[in-house]
Amino acid sequence: MTNNNSSNDVLLDFNLLSRLVVGIGEVSDMTGIPRRKIRYWEEKGIIQSEKDAEGSTRRYNYINIKKVLLIKELLEDGYTLDAAAQKVELRMKSMNETFRQLAKFMDKDLSTNDLKE
């Protein structure tokens, strides 16, 4: 039997997530999406790779891996690629705004606690 808390801990390790950058082969292996399809999604502007130099291997961060997984799920649910990409962008904007508000709340809460001490 596995402990659900320990399996979720990696999702809360923001330091790890910020450093998570893997090559296109690893993304393909992890997600089951062929490299050719990942490159196509990048050409369409749905995802973005981090390239160090011209001709270097495509590398993807956590956010783009998350997008690949969400798009895969939506495609399996019957969405077209364009509809899936639009839905993922809306989800990412919503998540970003939620975390931005949370960060403001946490900053405000921390500064209020500092004043009390």
From TrEMBL:
Residues covered by the HTH merR-type domain: 24-90
Keyword set, alphabetical order: DNA-binding, Repressor, Transcription, Transcription regulation
Coiled coil segments of this chain: none
PROSITE patterns to which the protein is assigned, alphabetical: HTH_MERR_2
SUPFAM superfamilies documented for this protein: Putative DNA-binding domain
CDD domains: HTH_GlnR-like (cd01105)
Pfam families: MerR_1
TM region positions: none
GO MF term list: DNA binding; DNA-binding transcription factor activity
Superkingdom of this protein's organism: Bacteria
PANTHER family, sorted: MERR-FAMILY TRANSCRIPTIONAL REGULATOR, REDOX-CYCLING DRUG-SENSING TRANSCRIPTIONAL ACTIVATOR SOXR
UniProt name for this protein: MerR family transcriptional regulator
